[in-house]
Amino acid sequence: MESDLGVYTVKDLKESLRLAETLAKMSVSVRRKADMNNNNNDDNNGVYVPPKHLLLYLVRMGSFQSTPRYINADAQDDSLILDPKTTFENLKLMYRKELEGRPPLIERKFVSVCNSSGTKDKNSFRILQWNILAQALGEYTDRFVLCPPEAMEWNFRRFRILEGILEYDPDIVVMQEVDHFNFFAKTMSTQGYDGYFFPKPDSPCVYVKGNNGPDGCAIFYRKSKFELIKTATRTVEVWHVQSNQVLILQVLRHIATGREICVATTHLKAKQGALLSNLRNEQGKDILAFLTDEFSNRPIIIAGDFNAEPCEPVYTTMRTHPRMQLDSAYAKLTNNNSEPDYTTWKVREEGEIRHTIDYIFYSTSNLDVEMVLEIPDEEKIGQDRLPSMSYPSDHLSLAADFKFL
After folding, report:
1. Of 171, 188, 231, 370, which one is least surrounded by beta carbons within 10 A?
2. What is the pLDDT of residues 7-26, one digit of tens each?
3. Cα separation, 152 vs 138, whole angstroms
């Protein structure tokens, strides 16, 4: 196995990983001690930094494997023809006809957060955040053992996802694991949305034979509510090495008030362990450094799948940025400022997995959160968990109503 730093066998890499995980765990106590002493001047702050060959292995999909890549275009939805002036009622009739005879989408409602009025006015707007589950991964590699095969068919899932977006009437939509962007661009443009897509440089989808192109992140905004000022993208770096995670930033002007806002979305590295936890924290730092250059004291929202529980360092990193003053919208639901019990709940071959890893962070100095979309309880989710016939992704969407201060 060869990288730009030489030849490493699989055995070498596994041994390096075992050692690296041990050293990363040891570094956690060093970091906690430094945090307690408020000694945060050192960027690494005692954190273990893996050697470059191991770092490359961790952050790049294809650099250390011989699995063939299948370079396919986003063309699986080309047969769907829509009138550009399709009304919402007609679009709803279309996707409800496609979903006829299937269980309804999990029912959810918006609830007021603590100390909010729960009212909407011209200063208000709604954002929806969702890891929609890449079709190539969900259908071919993720192995959701309790999910009926028909629930994973794209011709079903695409309309259930569309329903799960449009039924909540969002003004801004940010998504991760998007590998059918053209479908959403085609359908949502009829409802007055404009969208932008940025793929991962080495998406895991392209190693699946039946893929529809790489997955990545996307942002859509309602053109009657916002005007696009600027789009910027970044391939996130970890200890100065380019990773396989990406970020989209859009600067939008809120037409009713003339206020500008930064909206960003990302999807951080997955997998558990101290080493990956440290890596995600470095990704968070890189994202914040990039956004600081575009921030200019505008209101800012950073939403995405961070693959990190609230106990991980990246969660604290996001909420303690000195300039942006970020907080989590869903933490405002409770008086003790805690997150929901879960945002993803699935059963794979290795067992049941329930985590809180998706967030909507916002700048508290110039935005106020009024309402959020509730997290369904266990009874609504069902014993087969997610995804299911009633829900098309293993991640729950999050949505929040914000108001300019």
Report:
1. 231
2. 556 566 666 677 777 777 77
3. 7
